[in-house]
Amino acid sequence: MTEIAIRRAGAGDASTVIALLISLAEYEKLIPPDARGRERLSAELASVNPRFEAYLAETDGKAIGYAIVFETYGSFRAKSKLYLEDLFILPEYRGRGAGKALFEAMVKQAREFYRKMGGRRLNALQIFQMEL
């Protein structure tokens, strides 16, 4: 496999993002978005102020994975935070660094998000949370 490129998906990528989302649903044995759900996803990607951002992992011009992130709000801290909803790589492309590249790109996005919100790194405290 050649180099892995990560880029933000735009309105023209809606069918690609949806196809990957359907692949995730099949992999997880879940019900994929219906026609109306796919329409809403497409509309959000085309929106001036979308409710989420989608990112594509590509190699050799083929989309092999995606991630979806969006801003949410933490009530106890009364602050915005970035939420990673999906991170998926097609099974046949796993073990080649695509997931790592996509995850690292999302970490970079999170850092930029927090800096824009006025956040700063505290060396004394590093908190990570992950549900398995």
Summarize the structure.
With 132 residues, the chain is of the alpha+beta class. It has three helices and four strands; from the N terminus they run E-H-H-E-E-E-H. Strand 2 and strand 3 (62-74) form a beta hairpin.
Question: What features would you highlight for this structure?
Answer:
single chain; 4-stranded antiparallel sheet; 35% helix; alpha+beta; Aminopeptidase; 3 helices; 4 strands; 27% strand; 132 residues
Could you walk me through the main structural features you see in this protein, from its secondary elements to its overall organization?
The chain has one domain (5-116): Aminopeptidase, CATH 3.40.630. It is of the alpha+beta class. Strand 3 (62-74) and strand 4 (79-89) form a beta hairpin. It is built from 3 helices and 4 strands.
Task: Spell out the blueprint of helices and strands.
Elements: E1 5-8, H1 14-28, H2 35-46, E2 53-59, E3 62-74, E4 79-89, H3 98-116
Antiparallel strand pairs: 1-2, 2-3, 3-4
Distance between the termini: 29 Å
What is the CA-based Rg, rounded?
16 Å
The overall number of domains is 1
General form:
globular
Strand fraction equals 25-35%
Largest sheet: 4 strands, antiparallel
Helix content: 25-40%
User: For the largest beta sheet, what order do the strands appear in spatially?
Assistant: 1-2-3-4
Output the CATH topology.
Aminopeptidase
Mean pLDDT: 90
Strand segment count: 4
So how many helices?
3
SSE run: EHHEEEH
The first-level CATH class name: Alpha Beta
